[in-house]
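Q: What structure does this chain adopt?
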Amino acid sequence: MNLDKLLDGLEIQSTVGRLDRSVGSVVTDHRKIQPGSVWVCYRGVLIDAHRFMAQAVDKRPIAIIAEKSIPVGTPTNIAYVQVDNSRSALARIAANWNDRPAENLDLIGITGTNGKTSTAHFIASIFRLAHLESALLGTIGYYLGKTALPAQSTTPDPLTLHGLFAQIYQNQIRHVIMEASSQGLDQRRLDHLKFQVAVFTNLTQDHLDYHRSMKDYLAAKLRLFRQTVPTGLAVINCDLSSDITDSISAVVQEKSLSNVITYGLNGQPNVTATNISQSTAGLSFRLLISSGSEKKSTSIHLKLFGQYNIYNALAAVSVAQHYQVDLNTIKKGLESTVIPGRCEAINLGQPFTVIVDYAHTPDGLKNLLQGIRMKASHRLIVVFGCGGDRDSDKRSLMGKVASEIADYTILTSDNPRSEQPMLIIEQILGAVRGQSDFEYDVILDRKRAIQRAVEIAKIGDFVVIAGKGHEGYQEIGGVLYPFDDRQVATECITNIL
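A:
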C-alpha cells in the first residue's frame, strides 16, 4: 500500500515530503520502526510520544504522523504529516491499512459502567440460535466464529481492532458485538466507525482515576451514539437518572436516530420484566415486549443471580427485536447463556453455594450482594479487594457496601499492581472501621482468603468471591502471576469434601 492511500480520509494540517512511497508497516512504538515503517506519534495517558521524535527520526521511517510541526533538521527523505489528533488519525490509518473491513460489517456497540460483558454474551447467544453469524469483542475475549483469542483490553487499540475486523470479514461473519469502554471511546480507538446499534447499560462511579469527573465519564460514553448511523438503533435503559437519559436523548435527537428502544423495570419501556423471583437456581421473570400495538410475552429463567442481570437480558432482547428474532429463539438464547466469571457458581456438591463474579465497582458489588441477599437464608460471606493504580475513591465505598450487606467480609488483594496491598485495604476500611456490626478479617494472600471463606462456610451459606471473575492472573509489583478465582475455589472446595 502506498502512503497516500494509507492517509486517505485524514484531516491533514500540513505535509512535507513524498507520499508516493510503499508502506511496509504501521507502528506506534518508536522502538519498533523498521525500514518502510510509518510511525504514528500520539500523546499517551502518561507519556507524550513526541518526546521520542529524535530517536524515531534516527531509525529512518518513511513517514511520521504527528500533532506537532515538523522538527528542524528532519531528513527530507522522511515524509512528515501533521494532524490535529494523532489518535483519531491512527484509527483511520488502521482502517485503511486493513482495507476498511468494518464498512462491510454490522457493528453493535455496548457501553456502560456495568453489564457490557453480560449484555454482549446474551446477544451473542440469541444470535447464534437465530443463525445470525456474529463475532464478539470484549473483556473476556475476542471470539471470531470458531477462533477465540485472549482479550488485550476491553476495546483494543485501532491496529489490533481493524486487524480483528479483517479476520471477521474473511471468516464471512457480518455481525460484530463489541464492548465500547469509556477509555476506548475517549482515546478515539473507535473513531470513523459507524455503528448500527448503540446500547447504554448504566453509569456509576468507576475510572475516575482516568476521567476527571462523572460529566467527562458520561461524555466519553455518549460518543458511541454520535457514531451511530441515522437508520440505526439506540437502546436506552430508561431507569437511569433523568440527567443521564436526558443527555442520551439529546444526542439521539442531534444525530436524528430514527429507532429507539427503551428497556427497564419502571414506567412504560418497550421491553420490561414482571413477576421477578430468585432461587438458588437463578432468576425467573415474565418478559414483556411492546412494539406499537403488538405485545408479546414469555417466561424466562436465567442461570444468573441479581436483578441487574435482568436489565442486561432486557438490553439484549431490545437488540434482538431490532433484528426481528422470534420470541422463542430469544427465550432459548437467554436461558442458555453462561458467562465466565459472571455470577459463576462453583458446585462440587458442597452444602453451601460459592459464586465467582467480576464485580469491581461499588454499584457492581452492591447489586451482586443485594441480589444474593434476597434469597440467602443463611450467612453471606464475601471475599474481595480493590485494584491498585485505579480509582481510589471507590475503595471506601466498596467497604461500605460490604459492611451493610454481607454478614462476614474477608478483605484481600485483588490486582495491587504497583501499590502496597495493605494500603489499599486501609482505604477500603476507611469509612467502616470501628463499626460494631461490621465483621471482617484481613488476609492479604488471596488464595488463603478464599480457602478461609470455604472452610468457615456452613450448610446453606453463600460465599461470594468478587473482583476478578474470569481473569486468570494476579498483577503484583508489575508482574503477572497465574491466578484464577474459579480454579482456586474449586481446589479449596475439593480439599474439604
